[in-house]
Amino acid sequence: MAIGEGPRLFADDESIRHVGRGLLDRSLPKAAWTHEAHLAACLWIVVERSDIDPARDMRAIISAYNVAVGGVNDDRQGYHDTITHCFIAGVRGWLARTGAGTLVDRVNGLLEAPEGQRDWPLRFYSRDRLFSVAARRALVAPDLASFPGGDTEN
Hints:
This protein is mostly helical. Helix content is 51%, strand content 0%.
């Protein structure tokens, strides 16, 4: 995405569910696993999949998806635990602040909100801490500011 462009928004509820189901069944094409898709899938799971606990289950879900599409989960690439927990907290915070609406309205609103920005975690973490091996492998506490409304394990 070029500088100045906004997020790629979703057309409808079904396009979001398609991303979420594709993540879970590992059928989503790797090229479709964008920043926006990450957030859409997370919000969909929080809102519509009460059988999944994001804080507990996203590591296994995303790691398995990465491997299924030819990726690797190691110290430099693939699943990143702290970033995942940070955005889970952001999704939950966004949902708590906003009223009910359609799935697409919620996701697109999130993508345009501060919590939906790629650099949102850097409000709480220094670059060195966030992109450390320790933060990739496990949830580390923020070193710049606390999360609004609590920690990243909400």
